[in-house]
Amino acid sequence: MVYYVKDDGNTEKMNCVYKDGNVSFETSHLSYFAISYEVPEPMPEEPAGSSNAVYYAIAVVAILIVIAAAAYFIVKRKQ
């Protein structure tokens, strides 16, 4: 990004092109310009072993317990 630095210290963003390691922009006069770039924020990495597999396993076990309890009470009720 290229910014035109005005006499009062304010900046104005200018159109520019970055290609092959060079920054190009057009201006009608010589003055102070600031050239900058944005660094993308790194994506946070998941800590090792922090997957949803544990939650799925707990859910499956809970469902099996509910099914077993229901079957137990159905069989007990029929007796």
From TrEMBL:
Keywords associated with the record: Membrane, Transmembrane, Transmembrane helix
Domain of life: Archaea
Transmembrane intervals: 53-75
Name of the protein: Uncharacterized protein
Biological source species: Methanomassiliicoccus intestinalis (strain Issoire-Mx1)
